[in-house]
Specification:
heterodimer; A: about 325 residues; mainly alpha; B: about 400 residues; alpha/beta; Rossmann fold; Coagulation Factor XIII, Chain A, domain 1; 6-stranded mixed β-sheet; 9 helices
Amino acid sequence: MPPITTTESASGRTTPVNGTQETTSAALELHGHGDVDVDQLPMTVVHARRSFVRGFGEDVRDIWSFRGLLVQLVRKELKVKYKDSVLGFFWTLVRPMIQLVIYYVAFTIFLGNSQPAYAIFIFSGLVIWGLFTDILGGCTGSIVGNGGLLKKTYFPREIFPLSVVGAAIVNFLFQMIVLLAALALSAAIGQRVVPTWDLALVPLALVVCVVWGTALGLFLAAATVYLRDLQHLIEVIILALFWMVPIVYSVTLPLNSFAANGHQTLLTLYLANPMLNVIAAFQRAFYTMGPEYTLQANLWPRLAFFLVVGLGLLWLAQRYFSRVQGNFAQEL
Amino acid sequence: MAANVITVDRVSKQFKINSNKSLKEMVVNRGQTKAHATEFWALRDVSFEVQAGTTLGLIGHNGSGKSTLLKLIGGILTPTSGTIRRRGRLAALLELGAGFHGDLTGRENVYLNAAILGLTRQQTDRYFDDIVAFSGIEKFIDTQVKFYSSGMYVRLAFSVAIHVDPEILLIDEVLAVGDEAFQRKCLDKIKTFQREGRTIVFVTHGLDQVRELCDRVILLDHGDVVIDGDPIAAVRTIRDTWQDEAVTEAAARDIPAAELGNGEMSIGAVRTLDASGAETSRLSPNEPCTFEFEVSSTGRTTDWVSGIAIENHLDQLCYGVNSGLMGRQLEPIQGDRTVRFHVPALALGEGHYHLTVAVHSLEGIEYARKNRVANFKVYSDREQVGPVFLEPTLEIR
């Protein structure tokens, strides 16, 4: 077998260049510049390190420039979820309806709850709680679940959890239609449905819910990349949290119980839950069959306070997300 | 001199492979976390600049860091140290159809994928017909893509990617898909891109593609830039290195040159000779050369045919002939003979070739064969591609 001599192959034929700027300028001259004039475009640093404090604005601008993609991804989420199922999008409504029926049967028939229009009561809390848990649950796996896309394409990573938020809001709006239909129905059968000023609380409560959900969702989405257990942990936590907010029971029951037993700290802690206040606002707005079943505190300052805290958390969560997102592609 | 569109400044990338991702593993492997975190440098202190209109090929072994470099330029990974700057819109084709979702129709996926590559809905509307026409799957555009064949999938994905009008296009080994006609179409489109002065950075294993498309090549080896420069020289060096490695590897595994046949005859030394008759492993196109080998027969063999075959580095048969095909009836053989195939002008283009020699009966029963036994290189001063050396003249009337 004739030997392949290495010396021969390296003899002056190749031009190993250690430095940088070696380009075949002859080849460059062959290409015209065409219609592209890149010289005029600014040179930007890829993944410039942004300050922890001030980087928020720049990151938001980046995300805003991809808003078209965000809309596309929200549509995808909604389309894909119920594609090929006979009932399709109706499944979005079926889940809370079944939940509603279960709680209604359990509480009124088995436990003898005599609250009027109890179904409306449950549903007005469930609809906003559903939004919160959809956001939390969906965001947690949004980065890990999109690993394939994340490793091959670049756009602001926040788009993934944000598209979950968008899809959850659309689902929420559909459920609101059902709630309003149920209200119309119960008014038709003679129950007390009256519009009050409390309806004005709904947009604020919704914003508080979305801000807190997004803040926690962004944090969980990023943290799950490093600790996969969070995905399962969050399911359990949501399950427990469900009983920490007054959806199936009236908020007055624990309040009276805490007061009677002198658990002042527990009472304060219980009321300090932002979702409790959000749910209370929804119940006040939509359940008008008896003020004794809803939280009778001034919700405006409370919700405003939670909004400010929530915005602070959102900023913090985004900064954390932005800090760790550079490593997502290699951690997955 | 054209402006730089990409500058890579002392960029290093370190990967930590830490397999502990769950609580259970953390508890079970407590204290071993340090040991579990294996670190390695995918890129070390890489610097270069790419000027507008350049087509840069990144080549190297698997694990040499070329895909990492591409992902760093694309912003998918962030460097451990150093900075990367670039200007203009960038489209990364790291995996065709990376953003495709099987449950969506072709049409929906076009919009989704275009949005991922940075197009607005209005822009996509404008390009939509072109995208579908280029992909050639008009009939199936409203079918869910999970029912597509892989070819259709790839056609649509590539079609979207090339219509996003980027200043910088990053391509990672995606050209090796689709049927040949479509590949041709893609290459044509890439050449149009080049003519328009756009910058292309692509990773490939196809060295012929490098020669055909690139005007600059960076060869990476274990995270270091080994060669940065002219593609012809770089490809030559790479071929030589790979060839040497293959030979060393074969030697290391102690594989004897394959000897086949029924043993009635045997083949001895095989040589390639240049014009002067000296043994060499380096030939030039259009020069005379000789392929020579020893045969011997212990008994008397009356019907025998002797032949050679030349294959290129891809095991493609480039040329084959034997005495029968040449219309020669050989004298009966007993003892040793030397067979020489004289070639008046070697019509092979630049590349690496392997010579296979064999002797067999008129009916085709093989007496002896040595597969890919003599390797030789052809070095050419002409710029051309493909294994055939033609040297045409050009006339335009």
